[in-house]
UniProtKB/TrEMBL annotation:
Protein name: Pyrroline-5-carboxylate reductase
Main location group: cytoplasm
GO cellular component: cytoplasm
Molecular function, one GO term: pyrroline-5-carboxylate reductase activity
Gene responsible for this protein: proC
Residue ranges of every copy of the Pyrroline-5-carboxylate reductase dimerisation domain listed in the record: 161-263
Enzyme class, broadest EC rank: oxidoreductase
Homology family: Belongs to the pyrroline-5-carboxylate reductase family.
């Protein structure tokens, strides 16, 4: 059985741990460590029954998979820290935005298998859209291992590494864009006089239904939209307002900005 150590105990680490444990991944093989926040480790241990360890060297003992769930700015420090305790049998799984497998391999100065992954926080409920790409020393078995792991928290798409920045912009950051839209919909529904609870239930189910239609119907998004839009009807009025505000352009700009940021995070290292 593979033993997995998470370095970093933040939102992404928790989303992955929650999803894995909920899908019968044994908590006894998961160890988590962080930098200073002891209380956070206790909280994760109590919630998920996993092992926690403040000493990173201890945390790495017997680990066969190391998940790097730290911020990109902390990559170098952490890689330098763990370097003395690594060997070629270990698989490094990085979920850091922007950080390339090549960068990780270079700092570790070891022909070690690195798989770069970009999940999203919906991993928490088993619905992540995770993109993965392999580094130069990772083989098909490593890709399979990473896939099996991330499949426990959602769907997995194998990409070329240069495509991961695009996946980051649409899927890693993606849930936030939808939450942003929902925030505006809730605010306006309340302004118009609908009770908060009713607005929330209607909007959430609408989003869920639209997502399911996109997944299950053979129609394109444009065709699905057309089927809702009666001539001179309410949807047409709403879509006209969106077009007048150039919301499609704003969304493209958001994806472009997130994509550029992901690329830049890699370059600033
Ligand atoms: N949040 C998201 O939606 C997504 C995030 N990601 C990626 O996941 C990574 C983590 O993001 P997120 O969970 O949001 O970040 P958080 O800020 O929530 O967590 C970062 C964690 O890293 C720990 N850490 C920092 N330095 C060290 C160190 N030297 N040794 C050990 N642990 C350390 C922190 O510990 P302490 O608190 O003790 O300082 C903290 O537990 C990022 O690289 C991000 O790009 C990828 C996909 C989606
Ligand atoms: O905002 C970030 O940098 C991370 C990466 C993808 C989602 N959150």
């Amino acid at each position: 059985m593979n033993k997995m150590t998470f370095i970093g105990a933040g939102s992404m680490a928790e989303a992955l741990i929650a999803g894995m444990v909920a899908r019968n991944f044994s908590p006894s093989v998961i160890t988590v460590t962080n930098r200073t926040n002891k209380q956070r480790l206790i909280e994760l241990k109590e919630k998920y029954g996993i092992q926690v360890e403040q000493d990173s060297q201890q945390a790495l003992q017997q680990a066969t998979i190391i998940v790097l769930a730290i911020k990109p700015k902390d990559a170098q420090t952490v890689l330098e820290q763990i370097k003395p305790f690594l060997n070629k049998e270990i698989l490094i799984l990085s979920v850091m935005a922007g950080i390339s497998t090549q960068y990780i391999e270079q700092i570790l100065e070891l022909d070690i298998a690195v798989v770069r992954a970009m999940p999203n926080t919906s991993a928490m409920i088993g619905l992540s859209a995770t993109a993965i790409a392999k580094g130069q020393f990772a083989n098909q078995d490593h890709v399979e291992m990473a896939t099996q792991l991330f499949v426990t928290v959602g769907v997995v798409e194998l990409l070329k590494e240069q495509e991961i920045d695009i996946a980051t912009a649409i899927a890693g950051s993606g849930p936030a864009y939808f939450y942003y839209i929902v925030e505006a919909m809730e605010t306006k529904a309340k302004e118009l006089g609908l009770a908060e609870g009713s607005a929330k239930r209607l909007i959430n189910q609408t989003l869920l239904g639209a997502a399911a239609m996109l997944t299950k119907s053979s129609d394109s998004p444009a065709e699905l939209r057309k089927k809702i839009t009666s001539p001179k009807g309410t949807t047409e009025a709403g879509i006209h307002a969106l077009a007048a505000a150039e919301v499609d352009q704003a969304i493209k700009e958001a994806i472009q900005a997130a994509y550029q940021r992901s690329v830049a995070l890699g370059h600033t290292k």
